[in-house]
Design goal:
The protein has helices at residues 5-11, 15-34, 36-57, 62-81, 87-106, 116-140, 143-167, 182-198, 200-203, 207-235, 250-274, and strands spanning 171-173, 177-181. It has one domain. By secondary structure, it is mainly alpha-helical.
């Protein structure tokens, strides 16, 4: 018998998620508006905790963890100091690594967990470049610009989640994340594009481009969500951690933001300069 709509919402208990959001969003806002050391502390904390969860998920041994830390610091430093337009090369290289990782994880014939060297390199790129992107973004722009990016990601998350519960019929990636649907994904892209359009003034780019920005960011965020789900499935884990009630770990909550932030920052720099 098909589950009723009421039953779906009851199964998707929102209490812990809402409590975590109530506690966490003010912290993000305070750090975002404080800027400087406050924003640095928050982003570095997210990156560091994410790195710990990544190492645990991939069962990396101490030598590989140490190597991953050094690679992460090198990638973070490169992301912060390189100038535009050369920074676009960093994003292109980062995107190539992420795309290769996606093919690696999504292929049923690979054994990702038995590749410690590849996992070490991936962890450094996967976490350090987004951390550096978010650091640069806030240090170079007003808090409204970064907030617009977060609003786009949140609009996608909320729309995809609730539309998926209410109307999701066609599975997006059943072997990786059975709960996600095409209906939710499409709704998320639409909501992200609308959020980008409405926050165009915050981003400092024309509304039409801001809508395209929102769509690109949303698609990148959804791909980041799927990549992290593939990592967990390879590792046999339900969540990346247990730090955030209702969400799981840091990577469970920030997976989309991590993958989308370098692309979002690059588009803002590119289009704001040419607007």
């Amino acid at each position: 018998m098909e589950e009723t709509l009421t039953g779906r919402f009851q199964r998707a208990f929102l209490g812990p998620r809402l409590l975590t959001a109530v506690a966490g969003i003010p912290v993000v806002f305070l750090a975002l508006w404080g800027g400087g050391p406050w924003w640095i502390a928050l982003t570095v904390a997210i990156g560091s905790l994410g790195r710990w969860e990544f190492d645990r998920m991939h069962t990396l041994r101490p030598p590989h963890r140490a190597g991953g830390l050094l690679l992460s610091l090198a990638a973070l430093g490169l992301t912060i100091i390189v100038e535009m337009p050369e920074w676009g090369v960093v994003v292109a290289g980062w995107a190539a690594v992420i795309a290769a990782a996606a093919m690696w994880y999504f292929s049923p014939r690979t054994a990702a967990m038995s590749q410690p060297v590849l996992s070490t390199v991936l962890g450094a790129v996967y976490l350090a470049v987004p951390t550096g992107s978010l650091l640069r973004w806030r240090l170079e722009h007003a808090p409204w610009s970064v907030l617009a990016f977060l609003v786009v990601v949140w609009a996608n998350d909320i729309s995809a989640y609730f539309v998926g519960i209410a109307a999701g019929r066609h599975r997006l990636a059943p072997r990786i994340s059975p709960g996600k649907s095409w209906e939710g994904a499409v709704a998320g892209v639409g909501a992200g594009a609308l959020a980008g359009f409405l926050t165009a003034a915050w981003l400092g780019i024309p509304p039409a481009r801001a809508a395209v920005f929102g769509a690109f960011v949303t698609i990148a965020s959804q791909l980041g969500d799927l990549l992290e789900s593939a990592m967990k499935r390879r590792a046999g884990l339900k969540d990346s951690g247990a730090l955030l009630p209702g969400h799981g770990g840091i990577l469970d909550r920030f997976d989309g933001i991590l993958v989308a932030s370098p692309i979002a920052y690059f588009l803002v720099r590119l289009w704001a300069a040419g607007s």
